[in-house]
Amino acid sequence: MAPLCRSDPMLVLESSLYVLERNPSDTIELFLSENVPADLVNSYLKQHAPNLQSTYLELMLSMSKTGINPNLQNELVQLYLSEVLDWYKILKDEGNWTEKTYSPTRNKLICTLENNSGYNTDTLLKNLPQDALFEERAIMYGKMNQHLRALSLYVHKLHMPERAVAYCDRVYEEGAQQPSKANIYFNLLQIYLNPRKKLSRKLFQWHHSTLEFRGLALLLSPSGTDNGRSDGDTDDVTDGGPIMLNEALELLSQRWDRINGAQALRSLPRDTKLQDLVSFLEPLLRNSSEHRRNYMVIKNLILRANLQVKEDLYKRRQAVVKIDGDSMCSLCHKRIANSAFAIYPNGDIGAFCML
């Protein structure tokens, strides 16, 4: 059978249905090892053995180092989603559905969505129910760089702030060099503190009359601009609920080194107490002071080096060189006599060789 896989794969497929039904794993592994065109095998299985289609695509995905092509990835995700939707409808009709209910196929769907990117997110989003499968929706929003949407789902629909923080960590570490990705934690802070407001392009700002907050904002404000917004975010994310101040303060204390301090202070409610910000401000101010001290040391070292250069220049300009009729050019060894000449920094004299 193996030689036929290379010479006439269609004949093998047409003759393999009996073997597939009785020994699917070995038959599919033979297709894979003999490099039978994947699209051809998938189409055949889809028509004649749909119950084996996902098994084949799963094996392909696990055996291939480079993954499978986007069309087949999309096929696999669609198969998982179709099964999950049927399972969801049954549980919903029985009144047993919750977002934290998982089946083996749903776990596969979530894992595939997280670890692959070849599927069509727009098509899949249209097939998701509006009132369920929020975790799958959040993952796909993340793939589309719609971070505000994804974070809002983790916080307000799934009630998993720890997953939202983990999401921010992943985005930050994957794109730490991109300014827009560095704002991801501030996006989460906005969601905690503005649950009833439309997420806008502009920063949520308020003005404190309290001197302590204004002084801290000035002290912690870095150079440059930061709009607190991520790539691909839109302005139509709205969610209700109370302000999640405790979660916001915990985020500030845990990720103080990844958040713009001035922006964070301007976003907090007016009645926030300074004592609640100690775990955020203490390391932040210490780090700011350390940076300032380091900058002053560097500045003084540069000034000292500059003074040293000026001193060396002054000494060289004060050097005296005597030239008479017998003086020789240090390069060509001819008498200088009445020729133009130059003095090099090391005291050598140059004349004819310079012309």
Task: Explain the overall architecture.
The chain has 355 residues and is mostly helical. The chain has 17 helices and two strands. It has helices at 2-7, 9-15, 17-22, 24-33, 38-48, 53-63, 70-94, 104-115, 121-127, 134-143, 147-157, 161-174, 184-193, 211-220, 245-254, 261-267, 278-317, and strands spanning 342-343, 349-350. The chain has a two-stranded antiparallel ribbon with strand order 1-2. A hairpin with a 5-residue loop joins strand 1 (342-343) and strand 2. Helix 4 (24-33) packs across helix 6 (53-63). Residues 199-215 and 221-238 have low confidence and may be disordered.
Query: Low-confidence segments, ≥5 residues, pLDDT <50?
Result: 199-215, 221-238
Q: For the largest beta sheet, what order do the strands appear in spatially? A: 1-2
Number of beta strands: 2
What's the story with the biggest beta sheet?
2 strands, antiparallel
Relative strand content: under 5%
Work out the radius of gyration. 35 Å
Helix/strand class? mainly alpha
User: What is the helical fraction, as a range of percent?
Assistant: 55-70%
Shape, please? flat
Write a short abstract of this structure.
The chain is mainly α and 355 residues long. Helices cover 58% and strands 1% of the residues. Helix 6 crosses helix 7 and helix 8 packs parallel to helix 10.
